[in-house]
Design brief:
Shape: globular
CATH architecture: 3 Solenoid
CATH superfamily: Hexapeptide repeat proteins
Helix content: under 10%
Strand order of the largest sheet: 1-2-3-6-9-12-15-18
CATH topology: UDP N-Acetylglucosamine Acyltransferase, domain 1
Distance between the termini: 46 Å
Number of domains: 1
Low-confidence stretches: 139-143
Largest sheet: 8 strands, mixed
Order of helices and strands: EEEEEEEEEEEEEEEEEEEH
Oligomer: single chain
Structural class: mainly beta
Mean pLDDT: 87
Number of strands: 19
Length: about 150
Amino acid sequence: MIEELEDETGAIIKYKRHANGRGLVSPSARVAETAFIDATAYVEAHARVGLDSWVGAGSWIDKGATVGDRTFVGSNVHVGEGCVVGSGVRIGSNTKLGADVMVGNGVRVDRDQQIAAGTVIEPKGGATSRAALAAMSRPVRPQARRAA
């Protein structure tokens, strides 16, 4: 069932409720069935949330953002437009990631943080490259099979 809400500019935005947690998800967003989206959380247009991820109360995954598999997004977190958050990441409550922030696999972001737009946070030892993080945000196209 599609619900319509009015944003601060008066525009009507359509959302559907995610089966696991009942959060509001844009019809163009891709959210794994095993992800949990709290009933008071939003996932905007063209955003992606991976397998077994958790998006807490009052959190907002902005347009085109990607949240990797097994990632925990605490309550009242804003993941900015175009952000790429890797797998196994933990983002504490009341944190704001600016637009186009990249967070590497396994990184922990403490609560009550503000991360400036365009920042790249790599895990200790730099195991995640910028190219690998950027690849997470691009759609995967099926490979053509070659004739044997």
